[in-house]
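Protocol step 4 of 6: structure prediction from sequence.
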Amino acid sequence: MDIGSRDKILTDDEISWESRKLGALYGFSALFVASVFGSRALSLGSKANAFSSAATGAVTGYMWSGFTRQAYEKRRRQLIEESQKEQQPGASDSVSK
Protein backbone atom coordinates (compact mmCIF):
# COMPACT_ATOMS: atom_id res chain seq x y z
CA MET A 1 0.00 0.00 0.00
CA ASP A 2 1.27 3.47 -0.83
CA ILE A 3 1.79 5.86 2.04
CA GLY A 4 -0.47 8.51 0.53
CA SER A 5 -3.30 6.21 -0.56
CA ARG A 6 -6.58 6.04 1.31
CA ASP A 7 -8.28 2.78 2.17
CA LYS A 8 -11.61 2.07 0.54
CA ILE A 9 -14.60 1.52 2.80
CA LEU A 10 -15.97 -1.86 1.73
CA THR A 11 -19.68 -2.64 1.47
CA ASP A 12 -21.29 -5.65 3.15
CA ASP A 13 -21.30 -7.54 -0.15
CA GLU A 14 -17.60 -6.84 -0.73
CA ILE A 15 -16.73 -7.94 2.79
CA SER A 16 -18.77 -11.12 2.33
CA TRP A 17 -17.06 -11.90 -0.98
CA GLU A 18 -13.54 -11.22 0.34
CA SER A 19 -14.07 -13.32 3.47
CA ARG A 20 -15.53 -16.23 1.47
CA LYS A 21 -12.70 -16.01 -1.06
CA LEU A 22 -9.99 -16.11 1.62
CA GLY A 23 -11.86 -18.81 3.54
CA ALA A 24 -12.01 -20.99 0.43
CA LEU A 25 -8.33 -20.40 -0.28
CA TYR A 26 -7.25 -21.43 3.21
CA GLY A 27 -9.78 -24.27 3.29
CA PHE A 28 -8.47 -25.86 0.10
CA SER A 29 -4.90 -25.38 1.28
CA ALA A 30 -5.71 -27.07 4.58
CA LEU A 31 -7.50 -29.90 2.76
CA PHE A 32 -4.42 -30.54 0.62
CA VAL A 33 -2.01 -30.45 3.56
CA ALA A 34 -4.28 -32.66 5.68
CA SER A 35 -4.60 -35.23 2.91
CA VAL A 36 -0.82 -35.45 2.49
CA PHE A 37 -0.11 -35.69 6.21
CA GLY A 38 -3.06 -37.98 6.84
CA SER A 39 -1.90 -40.60 4.39
CA ARG A 40 1.85 -40.38 5.04
CA ALA A 41 2.46 -39.21 8.58
CA LEU A 42 -0.62 -40.58 10.31
CA SER A 43 -1.00 -43.74 8.19
CA LEU A 44 -4.75 -43.32 7.92
CA GLY A 45 -6.74 -45.49 5.57
CA SER A 46 -8.02 -43.88 2.39
CA LYS A 47 -11.61 -43.52 3.65
CA ALA A 48 -10.61 -42.09 7.04
CA ASN A 49 -8.09 -39.79 5.37
CA ALA A 50 -10.74 -38.47 2.97
CA PHE A 51 -13.18 -37.70 5.79
CA SER A 52 -10.59 -36.12 8.07
CA SER A 53 -9.13 -34.04 5.23
CA ALA A 54 -12.55 -32.77 4.18
CA ALA A 55 -13.44 -31.93 7.78
CA THR A 56 -10.12 -30.15 8.32
CA GLY A 57 -10.53 -28.13 5.13
CA ALA A 58 -14.12 -27.18 5.92
CA VAL A 59 -13.41 -26.11 9.49
CA THR A 60 -10.29 -24.17 8.51
CA GLY A 61 -12.12 -22.40 5.68
CA TYR A 62 -15.04 -21.53 7.91
CA MET A 63 -12.75 -20.17 10.63
CA TRP A 64 -10.70 -18.05 8.21
CA SER A 65 -13.88 -16.72 6.65
CA GLY A 66 -15.03 -15.56 10.08
CA PHE A 67 -11.65 -14.11 11.00
CA THR A 68 -11.38 -12.09 7.81
CA ARG A 69 -14.99 -10.90 8.06
CA GLN A 70 -14.35 -9.58 11.57
CA ALA A 71 -11.10 -7.91 10.51
CA TYR A 72 -12.71 -6.21 7.50
CA GLU A 73 -15.69 -5.04 9.56
CA LYS A 74 -13.38 -3.66 12.26
CA ARG A 75 -11.33 -1.80 9.65
CA ARG A 76 -14.51 -0.45 8.05
CA ARG A 77 -15.68 0.92 11.43
CA GLN A 78 -12.28 2.57 11.94
CA LEU A 79 -12.37 4.18 8.49
CA ILE A 80 -15.91 5.45 9.03
CA GLU A 81 -14.94 6.96 12.41
CA GLU A 82 -11.88 8.61 10.85
CA SER A 83 -13.90 10.08 7.99
CA GLN A 84 -16.52 11.40 10.43
CA LYS A 85 -13.80 13.06 12.52
CA GLU A 86 -12.33 14.69 9.41
CA GLN A 87 -15.73 16.04 8.37
CA GLN A 88 -16.52 17.70 11.71
CA PRO A 89 -16.13 21.47 11.34
CA GLY A 90 -13.64 23.04 13.72
CA ALA A 91 -12.35 19.73 15.05
CA SER A 92 -8.73 20.67 14.36
CA ASP A 93 -9.23 24.24 15.70
CA SER A 94 -10.41 23.05 19.11
CA VAL A 95 -7.43 20.70 19.46
CA SER A 96 -4.86 23.36 18.64
CA LYS A 97 -6.29 25.97 21.07
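Step 5 (inspection) to follow. Residues 19 and 69 are 5 Å apart (CA to CA).
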